[in-house]
Amino acid sequence: MTPSFQLDRENVSFWLKVKPRSARERLGVDAAGELRLELHAPPTEGQANEACVQFFARALRLPQACVVILSGSKSRRKLIRITGHSAQETVAQLKRLLQSQPASR
Question: Which of 12, 20, 57, 13 is nearest to 38 (CA)?
Fold first, then answer.
C-alpha cells in the first residue's frame, strides 16, 4: 500500500506514525499503508517532535521552518505539512526516500 499525500499548491500534508527510541532513524510504511518514522529521540519534552522536523528538513534539504507538525504534537500519530518546494517535487522526494530505505515492520 502507498501512503496518501494531500497536495495544496506548495504544501504537502500527510499522517505519520512516530516510533521514538528506535535503534535507527528511518522512514517506512507500516502494514496499514501509513507512513512510519523511527527516531532515536525519546518522546519527552518535545524531543521526538523536534527530531521528526529535523529528519524531514535534512532529508528534503529544506529549512526546519518548512516542516510543521499541524496536529498530534502529544501523540504518536502526527499530521505533517511540508512547504518549500512544489508539492509534486516534495512527494517525489518522499517516495524516493521511502524506496531508498529498508521496509519497516
Answer: 20
